Amino acid sequence: MRSPSLSHAFLVLVGAAVVVAGNPLVTSKSYQATVSGDNLMKHAEKLSQYSKINDANTRAFGTIGHNKTIEYIKSSLDKTGFYDTYLDTFQYLYSDGTAALSVANVTYEIAWLTYGPGGDVNAPLVLANNLGCTQNDFPTAIAGNIALISRGNCSFSDKVALSGAAGAVGAIIYNNENGPLAGGGTLGTDFNPLGPYVPTGIVSGSDGKALISAVEVSDKLIGNLHVVATNENRTTSNVIATSKSGDQNNIVMSGGHTDSVPAGPGINDNGSGSMSILELALQLSHFRIKNAVRFGFWTAEEFGLVGSDHYVAGLSEAERNKIALYLNFDMVASPNFGYFIYDGDGNAFNITGPPGSDHIEKTFENFFASAGVKSAPTEFNGRSDYGPFLDVGIPAGGLFTGAEGNKTAEEAAWWGGQANVAYDVCYHRACDTIDNLNLPAWVQNSKAIAHSIATYAVSLDGIPRQAQRTLIPRIALPHDRRRHQACGHEVLAS
After folding, report:
1. Residues in domain Peptidase M28 (predicted)?
2. Which of 301, 302, 361, 411 is catalytic?
C-alpha cells in the first residue's frame, strides 16, 4: 500500500535504481527545513512514556520499555510505505544488579560485580590469604562465612569462584588502591569452572583496610551482604529500514542505539540520536533520492555495541560492500552540550578512520561553519555503534554532544553552558529524563544530520567505493570485554 505522502507519486525503474517520481530530489536546505523541535519532543515523550511502564524508569534491552520503543520505531516507518523494514532479532545475556553491605551496624559503599548472583548473606568475615588466586589461599575457616579478599593478580571471577569452592557464602573484594574501583567491575561471565559464584561486591581500598583491622580484633565480625541481581538471556531486536528507492548498490547508512542503561530511561542517551534519525527517516519519504538510504536502530549498545555488531557480523561480503558509509548519532542533545564531530581524519587524536571518514568529518565541519556554529573534534575510538563498521573498513562519522566529561572554559565560551561541569550530569543515571534534553542543540544537530544524509543520498563524491577489509568482529569477544567497549565507559574484570 502506498503511503499518503506518496499519493501523487509512483515508482519507476531507471537503470538499477528505483526512484519516486513526483517528489522533489532531496537537498540539504529542503531536508533541514523538515526538522521540527515539536516533532522531536513528541518522539521523546513516547520514549518517556515507555520507560515508565510498571514504574521501571528504564528502557534497557529486553524490558517492556525497550520492546515498546522497537515497536514504535518499526510501526512508524512502516506507515510511510517508503522502506523495506525488518526486525533483526537475537538473544543476549542481560545482567543487572545492586549490592548493599553493613558490618557491625556500619554501612559501607559496595559495588555489585556484573554477572554475580543475588542473595542475602549474614555471616562473619574471614580473611583470605595472599590475593585469593589459588585454592590454598582460602583457609577452612572461610566455609560458611564471607571471604574478604584483596584485588590483584587474578580476575574477580576466579576470586569469587574459589571462594565458592571453599564453601564461603559470600565474598567481599577490596580495591588495591585507597579509592573505589573506577568504572565498575564485572565477573566477565555467568560461569567459572573453578567453583560456584556466591553473592559478592567490591569496596574501596580504605574501607577494605578498615574491615581488615576490625576482623583482626574480633573473632566474629558479622557482615550483612544483600545482593539483588538478574542474569538471564533476553530476546531483543535491531530495526533495519532501507529505502525502496535509490541505488541499492550504494547505500548511505545512519544509525543510533535505542536502549538505555538499566539505571535510567536514557532519553538523551540515546533517545536523542535514535529519535533524530527516526524523524528524519519519516521526513525522507517526501523526497526522491539517488542512493538508497538505510537506517539502523541498534539494541543492546550499552552491553557492548551488541546490536550493531550482530548486524555487521551477519552481513555477507557482498552486502557489506553495498554500504558506502555509516553515520552514527549517540547523544546529540546533552544539557551542557558541545558540538563534537568524530575525528575521521585523525588530525586531532591520531586515530584515523577508513578512507572516506575524513570526507564525512569535513562535511559536518562545513555544515557548522556555514551555520556560524563552532565545532570541535572528538576521539574516533570505536566506542559507539560505528565501531563494528570501522572494523570492516566502512567509512564512518557522526556527532556527539558529550557525556560524563567536563566542559572546559574555552568550550563554555564557544557554546555557553557551565565550565567544569559535565556535558551531561545525568549520563547513565535515573535523571536522564525528558527534562535532560537541550532542545536547541538537538534541533541544530538534527539539521546537521539532515545535511549529511541529503548530501550523500545525492552524491558519493569523496567516498571511495572499494572492497572492505574483514576483521575479527566484536561478536567473538567475551561478555566482559564487550561491556568494556560500551558507550566509552570503562568496565574492569580484575
Report:
1. 238-451
2. 301
